[in-house]
């Protein structure tokens, strides 16, 4: 009777070229004040559709609530039928009484407004604060989500922030008006484990202090174990099982739930095993299969990075002159062999993505050398660089931002094949269809647009596009972070099969330590633009030497609700800025070899 939210027999349909599709059907659950309900399931199971229906935002994505009731108890005790409420009432509720953290931060933020404008607009509208009061509150919010130099971040635009920082801004926006219900749709997908732990602790604190209810959508079962009071398991638009978090983890009743839990990669499972090793597919009872070994030939270096340095200008003053520099990548050196995977791990903003983009010259490094397949990439002119891009491709972090919203998916996958003249006509169409098959997407999706797919499905399209030209090197920037455990396993197994068959090399940028442990041959840990520790996977994971590596591994959440971490258990380190004044000369990176191939940065 006192439930804050009641969802009763919800049904949502989407109109497509091939007829209506039922997104969710007969979905029912409640959320009480101060309670966290986690919704889990595969990509496309209807998790996000259910959440968007509660905000009545599903209508803006082509969906229609065709059945059921959505009840929300307002502060005065009146129960509002969300499905029947008019637009003015919903505008007053969105962002004020119901906050939402969206899955893709770049599309949730307005690219033409500053971070300050986007944080303060809701506070001024809903809370009646003055501009000065709203700005002060915005600064406090950025500090609470652990963003360094919040005063400077307020003046920046979304494209100037890393993916993880953008996600933290979206989290701050959702919590700005202290909503009674917080809908969190994959809120920690783009965050490293240390920031994730802090954000989860922050949400728990708000829940405890303000009685805020949380609808938490995730595919990370370890996060579910840390956050949930109750769990709702969804599959193909329906609920297959509900229960307390302890019941779901310890005595799951449905085969699907058991398979979901079994498919979750766990840190430490690879101890004493060779890498890489294939992931378990959801529903597959077989044990993890070892990936095909790399052909036993003499290691051949494909990628050689020497003293790579990338810095970004910080503008200031009336004339917008450069007053300082962000040392995004600082004196980074490593090699990557043919047919192997090097994983770069570290917290949001540490320079992982900037390093990957600098290697491909998507951003120009300040100094250093990058050699790919014996060619100096930095010395290539525009024409030669374009031809070289057939050998090096990138899978970006945000699939929606990297796909063209106005073109059908088949055309976007075919485009790189056409650009390099690899196929045309029927051969091109057959090649595109084959690629869709390989990334586990139905051929019917070829005629769809990006907005018609779930986040995980969009990421598979982005991966398909990178694989289209058979490159030698793929820089995968958080390529599987948006995927549920089943699709993640399929995509990673596919990448490992292609690596064994074609000799592909991967620079795998990730914050998921359990996935990295399973797929990487070598691991480099980055902090403030530098590699602080690098070596074979087993050496780094089994014997971490640098304090930051040790902290990173200790912050990984455990998929056991009886071993929860609370805010009091976390030691939050002070935020260090990578910004230095003009002319600052950083010390060179000097390493100590603690074991063969295992290097640790000297402090």
TrEMBL record:
<keyword id="KW-0378">Hydrolase</keyword>
<keyword id="KW-0067">ATP-binding</keyword>
<dbReference type="InterPro" id="IPR050319">
    <property type="entry name" value="ABC_transp_ATP-bind"/>
</dbReference>
<dbReference type="InterPro" id="IPR027417">
    <property type="entry name" value="P-loop_NTPase"/>
</dbReference>
<feature type="domain" description="ABC transporter">
    <location>
        <begin position="7"/>
        <end position="261"/>
    </location>
</feature>
<keyword id="KW-1278">Translocase</keyword>
<dbReference type="GO" id="GO:0015833">
    <property type="term" value="P:peptide transport"/>
</dbReference>
<keyword id="KW-0997">Cell inner membrane</keyword>
<feature type="domain" description="ABC transporter">
    <location>
        <begin position="314"/>
        <end position="553"/>
    </location>
</feature>
<dbReference type="InterPro" id="IPR017871">
    <property type="entry name" value="ABC_transporter-like_CS"/>
</dbReference>
<keyword id="KW-1003">Cell membrane</keyword>
<dbReference type="GO" id="GO:0005524">
    <property type="term" value="F:ATP binding"/>
</dbReference>
<keyword id="KW-0547">Nucleotide-binding</keyword>
<dbReference type="GO" id="GO:0005886">
    <property type="term" value="C:plasma membrane"/>
</dbReference>
<comment type="function">
    <text>Part of the ABC transporter complex GsiABCD involved in glutathione import. Responsible for energy coupling to the transport system.</text>
</comment>
<dbReference type="InterPro" id="IPR013563">
    <property type="entry name" value="Oligopep_ABC_C"/>
</dbReference>
<comment type="similarity">
    <text>Belongs to the ABC transporter superfamily. Glutathione importer (TC 3.A.1.5.11) family.</text>
</comment>
<keyword id="KW-0677">Repeat</keyword>
<dbReference type="InterPro" id="IPR003439">
    <property type="entry name" value="ABC_transporter-like_ATP-bd"/>
</dbReference>
<dbReference type="Pfam" id="PF08352">
    <property type="entry name" value="oligo_HPY"/>
</dbReference>
<keyword id="KW-0472">Membrane</keyword>
<dbReference type="Pfam" id="PF00005">
    <property type="entry name" value="ABC_tran"/>
</dbReference>
<dbReference type="InterPro" id="IPR003593">
    <property type="entry name" value="AAA+_ATPase"/>
</dbReference>
<keyword id="KW-0813">Transport</keyword>
<dbReference type="GO" id="GO:0016887">
    <property type="term" value="F:ATP hydrolysis activity"/>
</dbReference>
<protein>
    <recommendedName>
        <fullName>Glutathione import ATP-binding protein GsiA</fullName>
        <ecNumber>7.4.2.10</ecNumber>
    </recommendedName>
</protein>
<comment type="subunit">
    <text>The complex is composed of two ATP-binding proteins (GsiA), two transmembrane proteins (GsiC and GsiD) and a solute-binding protein (GsiB).</text>
</comment>
<dbReference type="GO" id="GO:0055085">
    <property type="term" value="P:transmembrane transport"/>
</dbReference>
């Amino acid at each position: 009777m006192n439930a804050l939210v009641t969802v009763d027999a919800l049904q949502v349909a989407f109109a497509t070229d091939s007829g209506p599709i039922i997104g969710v059907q007969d979905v029912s659950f409640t959320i009480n004040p101060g309670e966290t309900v986690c919704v889990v399931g595969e990509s496309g199971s209807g998790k996000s559709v259910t959440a968007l229906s509660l905000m009545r935002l599903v209508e803006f994505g082509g969906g229609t609530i065709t059945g059921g009731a959505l009840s929300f108890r307002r502060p005065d005790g009146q129960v509002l039928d969300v499905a029947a409420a008019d637009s003015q009432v919903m505008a007053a509720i969105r962002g004020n009484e119901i906050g939402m953290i969206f899955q893709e931060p770049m599309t949730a933020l307005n690219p033409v407004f500053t971070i300050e404008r986007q944080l303060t607009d809701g506070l001024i509208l809903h809370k009646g604060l003055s501009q000065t009061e709203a700005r002060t509150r915005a600064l406090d919010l950025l500090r609470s989500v652990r963003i360094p130099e919040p005063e400077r971040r307020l003046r920046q635009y979304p494209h100037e922030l890393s993916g993880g920082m953008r996600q933290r801004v979206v989290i701050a926006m959702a919590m700005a008006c202290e909503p009674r219900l917080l809908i969190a749709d994959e809120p920690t997908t783009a965050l490293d484990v240390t920031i994730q732990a802090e954000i989860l602790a922050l949400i728990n604190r708000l829940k405890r202090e303000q009685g805020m209810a949380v609808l938490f959508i995730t595919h990370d079962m370890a996060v579910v174990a840390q956050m949930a009071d109750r769990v709702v398991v969804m599959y193909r638009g329906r609920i297959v099982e509900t229960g307390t978090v302890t019941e779901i983890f310890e005595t799951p009743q449905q085969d699907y739930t058991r398979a979901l839990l079994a498919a979750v990669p766990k840190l430490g499972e690879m101890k004493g095993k060779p890498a890489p090793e294939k992931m378990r597919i959801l529903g597959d009872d077989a044990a993890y299969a070892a990936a095909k070994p790399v052909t036993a030939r003499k290691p051949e270096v494909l990628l050689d990075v020497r003293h790579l340095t990338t810095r970004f200008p910080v503008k200031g003053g009336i004339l917008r002159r450069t007053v300082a520099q962000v040392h995004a990548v600082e004196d980074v050196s490593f090699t990557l062999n043919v047919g192997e995977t090097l994983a770069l791990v570290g917290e949001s903003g540490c320079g992982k993505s900037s390093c990957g983009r600098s290697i491909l010259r998507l951003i120009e490094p300040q100094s250093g050398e990058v050699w790919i397949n014996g060619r100096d990439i930095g010395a290539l002119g525009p024409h030669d660089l374009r031809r070289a891009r057939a050998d090096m491709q990138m899978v970006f972090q945000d699939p929606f931002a990297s796909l063209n919203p106005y073109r059908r998916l088949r055309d976007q996958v075919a485009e790189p094949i056409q650009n390099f003249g690899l196929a045309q006509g029927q051969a091109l169409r057959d090649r595109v269809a084959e690629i869709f098959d390989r990334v586990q997407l139905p051929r019917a999706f070829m005629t769809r647009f990006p907005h018609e797919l779930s986040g995980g499905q969009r990421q598979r399209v982005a991966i398909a596009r990178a694989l289209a030209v058979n490159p030698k090197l793929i820089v995968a920037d958080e390529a599987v972070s948006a995927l549920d455990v089943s699709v993640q396993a399929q995509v990673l197994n596919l990448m490992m099969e292609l690596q064994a068959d074609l000799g592909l090399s991967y620079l795998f940028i990730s914050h998921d330590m359990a996935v990295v442990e399973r797929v990487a041959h070598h691991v480099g840990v980055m902090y403030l633009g530098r590699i602080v520790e690098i070596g074979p996977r087993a050496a780094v994971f089994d014997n971490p030497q640098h304090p930051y590596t040790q902290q990173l591994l200790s912050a990984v959440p455990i998929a056991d609700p009886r071993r929860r971490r609370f805010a009091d258990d976390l030691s939050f380190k002070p935020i260090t800025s990578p910004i230095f004044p003009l002319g600052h000369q950083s010390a060179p990176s000097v390493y100590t070899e603690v074991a063969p191939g295992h290097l640790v940065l000297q402090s």
